[in-house]
Write a structure and sequence with these properties.
mainly alpha, disordered N terminus, about 80% helix
Length: about 300
C-alpha cells in the first residue's frame, strides 16, 4: 500500500515541479523583458544624460515608488528592516559595479564585442550556483542551456562580434569579463535573499544602496537636465521595480542554474525594440538565434527536477 502511494505521489510531485519551473521561467522572462526597456534607456536618451546619471535617477524613481507603496498599503517601514544589511549591500555593489564595468568596457571596444563577453555572466552564474549553492544540472537543463547559448552566440555573431580584434581591446575585454563575474555574483545574492527576505525588503535595500553607491559617479558625469528632462528617467524607477519583483519571484521558485539562460532572452527583446523604435532590420542569423533561445526557454520551462 505504501509503495502504491509513493508511486502515485511521484507523478504528482513531478507535475508540481514542472508547474513551479514553468512559473519561474515566465516570471524571469517578464522581468527580463521589462529590464530591456531600462537597458535601452541610454539609446533613447542619446547625449542628453550619462549612463551613471540615468541609473541614479532610476534608483531615485524606484525608491519613490516603494515609499508610495508603503504609504498606500499603510505598512510600517520597521517591518521591512533586514537582519542581513551586509548581504543587501553586497548585492547592490555587485549590480552597480557590474553595470559600470559593462559601460566602461563598451566605451573602450566595439559594443557588440563587449555585449558578447557580457553574456558570459550566464555561464558564470550557472557555475556559481553549482559551486556555492549546491545546485545540480540534469540532462534536460543542459539541453536548454546549450540551445540558449547557441542562440545568443548566433545573434551576437550576426552583428559582427570579434571581427576586428586589436591589442588595445585587451583591457576593456578584461573589464567586461570582470563585469560578467560581478553580475553573476548579483544573481547568486538575489537567489539567496529572495528565499530569506520579503520581496519588498529586497527592493527597498537595493534601491537605497544603489542611490548611495551611484551618487558619486552620477555627480561626476552629470549633464544639465531640467525637471521635464529628468522625468522619463525617474519613470524608469517603477518599470525597474516591477522587473526586479518579477526576477525575485522567479528566483524564489527555481535554481539559478535553471533560470540563468533565460537572461539571453533580452537579446530577443532588444531586437524587437530595435525593429519598433529604431528601424533596425535583423538578419536571418538573428531570427535563428531568437528561435534557439525560445526553444531553450521552452526546454527549461519543462524541466521537472
Amino acid at each position: 500500500m505504501r509503495e502504491n502511494s509513493a508511486t502515485a505521489s511521484s507523478p504528482r510531485r513531478r507535475s508540481r515541479l514542472h508547474a513551479r519551473n514553468l512559473e519561474a521561467v515566465l516570471w524571469t522572462t517578464a522581468g527580463t523583458a521589462l529590464f530591456t526597456l531600462v537597458f535601452a534607456s541610454g539609446k533613447f536618451a542619446g547625449d542628453s544624460a550619462s549612463a551613471p546619471q540615468i541609473l541614479w535617477l532610476r534608483y531615485i524613481g524606484g525608491l519613490a515608488t516603494l515609499v508610495a507603496v508603503l504609504a498606500v498599503t499603510r505598512q510600517p517601514p520597521r517591518r521591512f528592516v533586514s537582519r542581513r544589511p551586509f548581504s543587501h549591500l553586497l548585492r547592490a555593489l555587485f549590480g552597480a559595479s557590474g553595470g559600470m564595468a559593462a559601460i566602461q568596457a563598451a566605451a573602450g571596444m566595439p559594443i557588440v564585442d563587449a555585449t558578447a563577453i557580457g553574456l558570459l555572466q550566464v555561464i558564470f552564474a550557472i557555475g556559481l550556483g553549482v559551486w556555492l549553492l549546491g545546485e545540480r544540472i540534469r540532462r534536460p537543463q543542459w539541453t536548454g542551456i546549450v540551445l540558449c547559448t547557441a542562440g545568443a552566440a548566433a545573434i551576437v555573431a550576426s552583428k559582427g562580434a570579434f571581427r576586428d580584434l586589436e591589442p588595445a581591446y585587451l583591457l576593456p575585454a578584461g573589464i567586461a569579463v570582470a563585469g560578467a563575474v560581478l553580475v553573476a555574483g548579483e544573481a547568486i545574492m538575489i537567489k539567496t535573499l529572495s528565499v530569506r527576505e520579503p520581496a519588498l525588503t529586497v527592493l527597498l535595500y537595493v534601491n537605497a544602496f544603489g542611490i548611495l553607491i551611484l551618487a558619486g559617479p552620477a555627480w561626476l558625469a552629470w549633464r544639465p537636465l531640467d525637471i521635464v528632462g529628468m522625468w522619463p528617467f525617474l519613470m524608469l524607477g517603477p518599470i525597474a521595480i516591477t522587473a526586479q519583483f518579477c526576477i525575485i519571484r522567479g528566483y524564489r521558485l527555481a535554481d539559478v542554474a535553471l533560470l540563468g539562460p533565460v537572461d539571453y532572452s533580452w537579446l530577443v527583446f532588444s531586437g524587437i525594440l530595435g525593429i519598433v523604435f529604431f528601424g533596425e532590420v535583423p538578419g536571418p542569423a538573428s531570427y535563428l538565434g531568437a528561435a534557439l533561445i525560445l526553444a531553450g526557454g521552452i526546454v527549461l520551462a519543462r524541466v521537472r527536477t
